[in-house]
């Protein structure tokens, strides 16, 4: 009887006990990437209950009574999340963890990045955005949808030699860095992304600063700067296989792998890539190979990271463009490698190629001295070697310092030949930055860099139709450029009040540049150049309310002439002088609910800007002269909104005026051996459209499938500085369609499928050109070359992540 009574009592009490107990269900993810974090520890500190998140990052803590609890969530490499919860019913939590500052590679580059309250015009592109746009095209196409950007491709298909202009400034005026280390070639000032195929697969994020921006290492920004951060830490082991195929026999194959964090200290990552394409333009093929390797140590207060990334390219030359008189009927014509055989038939030399390999080595160090002080340092070395080979018809022996060839009956003064122009260079140095942040009012940086570049330029003749007694692989020129660049800067952000903050940035930069040897035209080079620049920057940031802010900044930048500006200069005249720019930016930003708006006015006022004359040298580089006064001014507007739950809209618009105040054109007169001059007054700067607009709609189905419609409009661009309607790129509107589908399976962590249809409406358009004008027989003549882009074309791919 007693046992019966006990059993009945338990049966009655148990339901009441169950009713008074509750459960906490939740998920743990990375706050930045949204990545699920399996193995996270979740502890209720006042009753010692603890669980671990499952492979989906989910967890459940059951059997909890009503009351207040402190819950702590921790995960290796992340800051702990500690919060107080009140339980009076079942509770659902979404816990988002932030990577510990010492575990974030961002600490390595923060001294050269613009921050949230830095009063300058910039845009960040995240890893997720890069992943969606990384279809195998070159780096400039990652930035195509950002404000004031125009991209171009010599081969017309986005693979091979590509370029980018931001506010009309090309890569020679854009400071490009990888992890805060300069990438621009020290002599030409340019960046050749063809030497870095599939680098997008090893990028964690990038920042574009328009205008002068903040102080950076290397050549100063003179229109824009682009700073890449390579792959960040992966907490877990992974492997990824990416394959894509598309029009023009374009193929991309990538294998990536990583160990994840080993013993909470070590991480190793790698990538191998191969990209190939036949190109839209005839014979404009590309064979590109690259790899990326990194080894990192993450201590309690120290990060040490070793990187090596390399690219090797072989591309058939497509540098001449298409003459305007045949572009409507033969849009894929390529004159490179063209010659006539003994019977007068047109032939094409099959090895008219550009060949180059660039190996980059970096050692990055970050050390947290205490909660206020952080030290960053880096050592770097870049090795570059390559050449371009070309067939030249009817070349004079004397042009190469060679004697004519004599036979029993004739004197031969001309020969067909094959030549190589070779560049063998080394670039090395160090960067450093000491960062201070009291987490209240003041954050400051003192940093700098020392870099040295050694570039050997030489040329060999590998074959001659009439060789005579001339040696094989005859070297007809050799010279060397030696350049040393040192800069030191100091930046400070001062938070005066809750709403007002002030920014100051002062930089000193010194350049020593020496050129010695014989140039390809047999001219003797002996030049020494020295520059000392002071580049100040000031700004004010004002927080209007929780949703919006204003900023204004003023900056001065200086830029030294490039190697070609010096080498191609008329020896009878003074060398070109350095350029100076004064930059004013006034911006406004609003972000509220599902809508954002950014707008900024800008003025870029130049003294002695080196401007295009319309002439080019034998490798397509423009010859430039100093023009006393010129400017760029305009407005840039970006906006976006979540129209409905599944529909996202983003757009930007840039309106600008880009002028030379007093321009005089010079045109060669072949009849009299002089140049004719014509004063034109105020003219438009070349390659500077007054309107650039982007628009994108993205619709999401079931959180797995995205469809995006992207439109880009670029206004007309003059191809020289004369503002002639006869010499311009016509305005164009291009639309692209992109599909992304993502699924997760038990055996494959993530499967991503993509398909992109470029130029959906099959528009004929050109993005680049050159022109050379002259008078012959008292008649105005024009030589030009336009670079058409591909019509409707597509690319599809599959990415498997394990």
List the helices and strands and how they pair.
Layout: H1 2-19, E1 21-30, E2 41-44, E3 49-52, E4 58-65, E5 67-74, E6 81-87, E7 91-97, H2 106-109, E8 121-125, H3 127-133, E9 149-153, E10 162-166, E11 174-178, E12 181-182, E13 203-211, E14 223-230, E15 238-246, E16 250-258, E17 266-277, E18 286-298, E19 302-316, E20 338-340, E21 346-348, E22 353-368, E23 373-396, E24 405-406, E25 411-412, E26 414-437, E27 442-464, E28 474-495, E29 500-518, E30 524-543, E31 548-559, H4 563-567, E32 579-592, E33 595-616, E34 622-644, E35 647-669, E36 674-684, E37 691-701, E38 705-714, E39 717-718, E40 728-729, E41 732-743, E42 750-758, E43 766-776, E44 779-788, E45 793-801
Parallel strand pairs: 1-7, 11-14, 35-43
Antiparallel strand pairs: 1-4, 2-3, 2-5, 5-6, 8-13, 9-10, 11-12, 13-14, 15-16, 15-45, 16-17, 17-18, 18-19, 19-22, 20-21, 22-23, 23-26, 24-25, 26-27, 27-28, 28-29, 29-30, 30-31, 31-32, 32-33, 33-34, 34-35, 35-36, 35-37, 37-38, 38-41, 39-40, 41-42, 42-45, 43-44
Describe the structure.
The chain has 802 residues and is mainly beta. The protein has 3 domains: 16-99, Immunoglobulins (Immunoglobulin-like, Sandwich); 102-230, Beta Complex (Ferric Hydroxamate Uptake Protein, Chain A, domain 1), CATH 2.170.130.10; 238-801, Maltoporin, Chain A (Beta Barrel). Residues 6-19 have low confidence and may be disordered. It contains 4 helices and 45 strands. Helix content is 4%, strand content 60%. The strands form 8 sheets. It has a 22-stranded antiparallel barrel. Strands 8-13-14-11-12 form a 5-stranded mixed beta sheet. It has a 4-stranded antiparallel beta sheet with strand order 3-2-5-6, with no helix packed on it.
């Amino acid at each position: 009887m007693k046992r019966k009574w006990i059993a009945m009592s338990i049966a009655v009490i148990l339901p009441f006990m169950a009713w008074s107990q509750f459960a906490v269900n939740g998920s743990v993810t990375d706050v930045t990437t949204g990545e699920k974090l399996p193995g996270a520890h979740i502890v209720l500190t006042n009753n010692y209950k603890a669980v671990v998140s499952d492979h989906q990052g989910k967890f459940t803590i059951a059997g909890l009574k009503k009351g207040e609890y402190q819950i702590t969530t921790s995960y290796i490499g992340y800051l702990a999340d500690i919060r107080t919860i009140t339980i009076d019913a079942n509770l659902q939590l979404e816990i988002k963890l932030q990577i510990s500052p010492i575990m974030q590679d961002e600490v390595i580059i923060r001294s050269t990045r613009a921050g949230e309250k830095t009063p300058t015009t910039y845009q960040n592109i995240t890893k997720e955005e890069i992943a969606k746009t990384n279809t195998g095209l070159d780096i400039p196409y990652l930035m195509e949808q950002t404000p004031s950007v125009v991209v171009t491709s010599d081969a017309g298909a986005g693979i091979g030699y590509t370029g980018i202009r931001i506010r009309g400034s090309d890569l020679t005026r854009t400071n490009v860095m990888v992890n805060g280390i300069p990438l621009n070639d020290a002599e030409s000032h340019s960046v050749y992304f063809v030497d870095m195929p599939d680098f997008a697969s090893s990028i964690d994020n990038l920042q574009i600063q328009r205008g002068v921006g903040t102080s950076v290492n290397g050549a100063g920004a003179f229109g824009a700067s682009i700073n890449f951060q390579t792959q960040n830490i992966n907490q877990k082991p992974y492997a990824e296989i990416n394959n894509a195929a598309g029009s023009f026999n374009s193929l991309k194959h990538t294998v990536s792998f990583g160990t994840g964090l080993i013993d909470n200290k070590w991480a190793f990552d790698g990538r191998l890539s191969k990209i190939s394409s036949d190109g839209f333009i005839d014979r404009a093929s590309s064979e590109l190979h690259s790899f990326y390797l990194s080894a990192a140590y993450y201590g309690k207060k120290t990060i040490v990271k070793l990187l090596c990334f390399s690219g090797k390219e072989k591309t058939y030359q497509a540098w001449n463009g298409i003459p305007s008189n045949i572009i409507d009927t033969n849009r894929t014509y390529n004159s490179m490698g063209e010659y006539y055989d003994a019977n007068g038939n047109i032939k094409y030399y099959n090895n008219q190629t550009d060949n180059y390999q660039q190996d980059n080595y970096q050692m990055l160090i970050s050390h947290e001295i205490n909660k206020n002080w952080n030290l960053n340092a880096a050592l770097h070395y870049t090795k570059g070697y390559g050449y371009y080979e070309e067939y030249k018809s009817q070349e004079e022996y004397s042009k190469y310092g060679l004697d004519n060839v004599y036979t029993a009956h004739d004197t031969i003064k001309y020969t067909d030949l094959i030549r190589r122009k070779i560049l063998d260079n080394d670039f090395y140095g160090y960067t450093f930055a000491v960062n201070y942040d009291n987490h209240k009012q003041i954050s400051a940086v003192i940093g700098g860099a020392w870099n040295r570049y050694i570039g050997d330029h030489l040329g060999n003749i590998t074959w001659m139709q009439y060789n005579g007694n001339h040696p094989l692989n005859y070297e007809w020129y050799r010279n060397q450029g030696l350049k040393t660049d040192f800069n030191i800067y100091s930046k400070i952000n001062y938070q005066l009040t809750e709403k007002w903050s002030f920014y100051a940035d002062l930089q000193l930069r010194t350049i020593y540049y020496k050129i010695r040897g014989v140039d390809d035209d047999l001219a003797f080079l002996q030049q020494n150049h020295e520059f000392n620049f002071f580049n100040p920057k000031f700004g004010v940031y004002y927080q209007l309310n929780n949703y919006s802010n204003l900023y204004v900044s003023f900056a001065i930048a200086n830029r030294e002439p490039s190697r070609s500006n010096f080498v191609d200069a008329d020896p009878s005249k003074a060398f070109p002088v350095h350029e100076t720019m004064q930059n004013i930016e006034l911006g406004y930003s609003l972000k509220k609910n599902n809508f954002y708006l950014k707008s900024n006015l800008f003025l870029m006022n130049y003294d002695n800007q080196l401007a295009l004359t319309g002439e080019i040298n034998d490798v397509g580089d423009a010859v430039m002269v100093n023009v006393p006064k010129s400017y760029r001014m305009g407005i840039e507007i970006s906006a976006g909104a979540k129209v409905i739950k599944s529909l996202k809209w983003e757009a930007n618009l840039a309106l600008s005026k880009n002028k030379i105040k007093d321009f005089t054109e010079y045109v060669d007169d072949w009849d009299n051996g002089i140049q004719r001059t014509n004063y034109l007054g105020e003219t438009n700067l070349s390659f500077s459209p007054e309107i650039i607009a982007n628009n994108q709609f993205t619709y999401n189905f079931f959180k797995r499938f995205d469809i995006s419609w992207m439109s880009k409009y670029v206004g007309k661009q003059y191809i020289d500085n004369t503002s002639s309607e006869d010499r311009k790129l016509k305005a164009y509107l291009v639309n692209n369609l992109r599909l992304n589908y993502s699924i997760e399976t038990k055996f494959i962590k993530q499967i991503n499928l993509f398909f992109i249809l470029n130029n959906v409406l099959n528009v004929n358009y050109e993005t680049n050109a050159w022109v050379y004008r002259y008078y012959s027989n008292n008649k105005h003549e024009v030589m030009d070359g336009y670079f058409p882009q591909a019509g409707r074309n597509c690319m599809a791919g599959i990415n498997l992540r394990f």
